[in-house]
Amino acid sequence: MDVLKFKKKSILQQLRAAYQPKLPETLKGAVVAVKGEATQSVGNQAEIKALFPCTYGLPELTFKRDTSAGASVHSDTTFNVGVILSGGQAPGGHNVISGIFDGIKAINENNRLFGFLMGPEGLIEHNYMEITRDIVDDYRNCGGFDMIGSGRTKLEKPEQFEKGLEIINELGIRAVVIIGGDDSNTNAAVLAEYYKQKNVPVQIIGCPKTIDGDLKNEKIEISFGFDTATKLYSELIGNVERDCNSAKKYWHFIKLMGRSASHIALECALQTQPNYCVIGEEVAAKNMYLDDVVTDIARVVAARAEQGKNYGIVLIPEGLIEFMPAMKMLIDELNDILAANPDFSKLHLDEQREFVLNHLTPNNKARFETLPPTVARQLTLDRDPHGNVQLSLIETEKLLSEMVGKKLQQMKEEGKYNGKFKRLHHFFGYEGRCADPSNFDADYCYALGYNAAMLINAGATGYMSSIRHLAKPAAEWEAGGIPITMMMNMEHRNGEQKPVIKKALVDLEGKPFKVFANSRELWARETSYIYPGPIQYFGDDEMCDQTSCTLYYEQGGE
Asked: Which pLDDT score is estimated for 516?
């Protein structure tokens, strides 16, 4: 028993450490970068070009095998690389670092990798560690960001860039790889532009990370961590569904991560077939109010009660409230009020409410006053570093279930409902951020990191590592890079217009949503639950290497 108690690693961790991620055939050996056409931003082209004159319009890069005589990935030139984990954790981050390490060592064994500790702040404050082979080997194929830690400090001020440049020069670093989401990679683009304008020979490369799945486009097909997180959430939802179908007496309201897009909720719905799933983008498109969503859920609850089924599963995206146009207007105004009044948090709770009511426009004031006190209070909590309301702190699942209960009581008094409504609440969020990566994410992240090393070797800066055709076997994946400015537009942040990477929302005309929409009425009536079970790391490829449902349908699956 004592031996088990003091083991450093579980049996699974030990076995996973031995897993060798698959690389695209393109990246095995020497590569040559093929330039595509010049690119432009997805929106506000004139404004973005003016802000990024040195890194705007760069061509897309695609790597091809260099089959010329004597071609080799090895170079006699040595260089050092820095790496930063930025933002929230996502499964596979350590494999990106492993890929970078193996990539630069393949180029020259004397190349060195430095990790800046606790996110971008480590660059600014000169907190770092050298990442050696022993360290890398200890973290291969495992979850978390604990090798070097992560943080949410924004890189956006010249004094930060100059402070970072001091340690970059001291360590002889040629390139910095920033592993993060849309905001972190926006910072990477700003940093790349700054150093380019200053004619500083430092390259900046980004890697697409976020479990939310909203950092993607035709070239970035999926952000890493989404596959693992949604598989883990789906396992948990399946477990709750099994319990629900066993007890047959509870309605479970389950909130899922995804503040700006409903990709996680949609993917989990496709994997588990709940009785109801709210898709925020559909709510926005239909200009639905909170009462509209509540009424629709109550309709499903009442219809199942008529069959004697007083139980069910409801999935809710974390960012639902912001998708309701009326609520979004309120939140946007609250964001501006709080950004302009940094001492707001010092006020007493009663004073905070009075302050907000005195500063809101009449329509938003009326909306604010109708909210339950707990939700109104949660909307005025401290913003995250990007100026956004912390939607994970808003108990949307409890708000909806409470309102559905009141709606059903009203229906009962009108003789339209005669069932029972007992409810339970869940929020699946942090459980999915640090899981050991699925085989897909282990392979994808390793390829992203190795590919980043090839982008550095090719002299690229202001690019994001891109691995494509991900529904195919890993050997057939295509590698390259896309300019970060290509994904940018102007958006209102912290009271002003700023350049940011445009978030990818659920496409209501896309196949994943249409598959869901065509099935949901059946799932509402019938108990059609699927129990995915835990992530499989060992066994048949069909079981272990499967992609997400979203990626499968987006790339032609039937």
From this structure: 98
- Predicted TM-score (pTM) of the model is 0.92
Extract long-range pairs of 121-125: CB within 8 Å, 24+ residues apart: 121/151, 121/153, 122/84, 122/148, 122/149, 122/151, 123/82, 123/84, 123/155, 123/163, 123/164, 123/167, 123/168, 123/176, 124/153, 124/155, 124/160, 124/163, 124/164, 125/163
Q: Is residue 373 in a domain?
A: yes
Is residue 156 domain-resident? no
- Position 369 in a domain: yes
| Residue whose pair of structure tokens reads 């091809």 in the numeric block | 64
CATH number at residue 378: 1.10.10.480
Whole-number CA gyration radius for the chain = 25
Instruction: Give the residue with greater pLDDT, 453 vs 7.
Output: 453
What does the DSSP assignment read for 475-544? GG-EEEEEEGGGGEEEEEETTEEEEEEPPPPP-TTSHHHHHHHHHHHHHHHS-------SPP-SS-HHHH
Q: Whole-angstrom Cα distance, residue 404 to residue 298?
A: 6
Q: Within 13 Å and on the Cβ side, how many CA atoms surround 208?
A: 32
Strands lying side by side in the sheet with 478-483: 31-38, 59-65, 478-483, 463-468, 203-208, 173-180, 80-85, 112-116, 128-131
**Are 448 and 159 within 8 A, CB to CB?**
no
Supply the DSSP string of 239-255, one letter for each residue: HHHHHHHHH---EEEEE
Range of the domain at 379: 321-394
Catalytic residues: 212
Which residue is it, tokens 């065509």?
Answer: 518
User: Does 386 reside within a domain?
Assistant: yes
Cα atoms in the 13 Å half-sphere on the side-chain side of 25? 6
391: which DSSP letter?
A: G
Residue type at position 353: R
The per-residue pLDDT of the chain, averaged, comes to 94
- 113, 80 contact by CB (below 8 A): yes
Which run of H or of E encompasses 69? none
Structure tokens at 47: 């404004």
CA–CA dist 30, 68 (Å, integer): 9
CA 191, CA 156: separation in Å to the nearest integer? 8
Task: Report yes or no: 456 and 77 within 8 Å, Cβ to Cβ.
Answer: no
Q: 222, 213 in Cβ contact below 8 A?
A: yes
Domains identified in the chain, total number:
1
Residues 148-198: pLDDT tens digits?
A: 999 999 998 999 999 999 999 999 999 999 999 999 999 999 999 999 999
Q: Which residues of 444-456 are buried (b: 16+ CB within 10 A; e: fewer)?
A: bbbbbbbbbbbbb
